[in-house]
Each structure stands twice: as C-alpha cells, then as structure tokens.
Amino acid sequence: MSTIAFLGLGIMGSPMAVNLAKAGHAVVGWNRSPGRADALVAAGGKEAGSIAEAVRDADVVITMVPASPQVEAVAYGPDGILENARPGTLLIDHSSITPQTSVDLAKAAAEKGIRVLDAPVSGGEAGAVEGVLSIMVGGERADFDAARPVFDAVGATVVHCGPHGAGQTVKAANQLIVAVNLQALAEAVVFLEKSGVDLAAALEVLGGGLAGSTVLARKKDGILARDFAPGFKLELHHKDMGIVTDAARTVGATLPAGAVAAQLIASAVARGDGALDHSALLRGVELLSGYGREQGA
C-alpha cells in the first residue's frame, strides 16, 4: 500500500480519495478551499494544511483540479509539488488539461527526479463514487505498471495510451464524443415530448438498442426529473471543448459536429447554466423549441 497525497477534493476528487483510503492506502488530502476533507477523514484519511505538508512524505501524489492553470499552480513554485515532493515520487494527474501542459509538466518534474503520468478520467461523479472510472494514461510504461494498484482502486477500465500527453489527447476525444451524444440525447428528448410519446418508456427501449449508451444510462433519471445537479459541470465541459478544438486545429483534424456541440455548450454557459450538469444542454434545445425557460428550471 502507498502513502498518497491527494490534491483536489471536489466532486470527483473526494470520492476518489475515499476509495483509495478504503483500499488500504494512507491518503492525505488537500483542497484549495477548506471544508472538503470530511468524507476522506471519515474513511480513515487525513487532511493537510498545505501542499507541502501533503506531499512531503508521499510515495504518490495525485492531482484532480479543474484545468491547466490550477495544475500549474499546485505543481510549480516554492510551495508546489515539484519543490516539496521527494525524488522518486510518482505524480499522477487526473485533471483534464491540454496535452502540452502534461508534456511540459513531465519534463519539469523529470529535472527533480519526479515521475509523471497524465491520467484523466471519465465516468462522472457516479463513476467516481462507484470506483468504476475509465482512466486513459500517458507516460512511461514502467510508471503505469507501478501505478496499477492506485488506478485499480478508483477505476474499472485502465489503459496505457502512449507517451506523455497521450492520456489527455484521448480524454479530449472522450469529451468530444460525450458532448455530441448529450446534444443528440437532448434533441431526441424534445422530439419525443413534442410528439406526445411517453418519455420514460421511450428512453427505456432506446437504452436497450443501438441508441443505448453510457450517457443515456447515466443521465436518463436526471433528465426525466429535470434534475441538473452537477455530476460534471457544463463550464468544465466548455473548457474541455476548447481543448478539443485547439488540439484538432493543431493536428489538422476537422470536427464539424464537435464545433456545433462546442458552440451550444458555450451558449449554455453564457446563459448562466455553467454550474449545472452537462445534461442541461437539454434546456437550450427546449428554448429553441419554444418551451418557456421555467420548464427546464
């Protein structure tokens, strides 16, 4: 079992840290805003007052923060990971950031004798709670193999995708697929309701056919109840679609459906829905279809 510093105890990070503690790892958690470590402490973990305190004696450091600027904030500087972790420490970044940020971090960490894996996850809050996340990993194969006991405590599908940055590239593709899928689901829901079909019955049978998907299975109940409590916030998906768009431009890939989905997500954030679950794309389709805003409230 490892001593793990877990930095970022948000919607995803908190249940992941809890599952690591339940698996027998010694987990020390830190969060930028206080008051997020209660679940970890209840599971047998500890709370640190600073990044330096959390990482000082850790074998493994895990980061789960919103975006590239936050990863850089916890990694660099006199109070950051690279200045306070021991040589030989394995840094696993579960955040969803740009591939280049991951490549740069790995290079800077290597100068300190710290190994890095970019390991973004998919599965949302439910997957984090259940410990069944999909984890796409970039970095050295030997480091990936060494990290398997950590990954297996939080994920069900764990795949080494290539060198540093490869995990983030695959996560960008994941977010592209999820965005287009969510938009198609939202349009189908409005189409079905406008046609007078029993929506619950329709989604049940659709889920058993070729139209079935993890997105439909995970989001169906929330859509039926119009409950958009965030499992993954629209504002974070907006950030991820920016990563997809930028990376696609760099490699010369054309993403027409992705571009439309990205604009619709941007529109939802601009309307003030950024803190809602990304399934709240439904609200935009409802507005375009003549529903009053209160219907999706």
UniProtKB/TrEMBL annotation:
Keyword Transmembrane appears in the UniProt entry: no
One short Pfam family name for this protein? NAD_binding_11
Instruction: Give the 3-hydroxyisobutyrate dehydrogenase-like NAD-binding domain ranges.
Output: 165-283
Q: Which PROSITE patterns is this protein grouped with?
A: 3_HYDROXYISOBUT_DH
Q: Where is the 6-phosphogluconate dehydrogenase NADP-binding domain?
A: 3-162
Q: Which domain of life is it from?
A: Bacteria
**Keywords from the UniProt entry:** NAD, Oxidoreductase, Signal
> Where do the TM regions start and end?
none
State the Gene3D superfamilies in the record. N-(1-d-carboxylethyl)-l-norvaline Dehydrogenase, domain 2, NAD(P)-binding Rossmann-like Domain
Q: What is the annotated signal peptide range for this record?
A: 1-17
The answer on whether this UniProt entry bears the keyword Chloroplast reads no
Query: What family is this protein classified in?
Result: Belongs to the HIBADH-related family.
**Could you identify this protein by its name?**
2-hydroxy-3-oxopropionate reductase
- Please give the organism: Streptomyces nigrescens
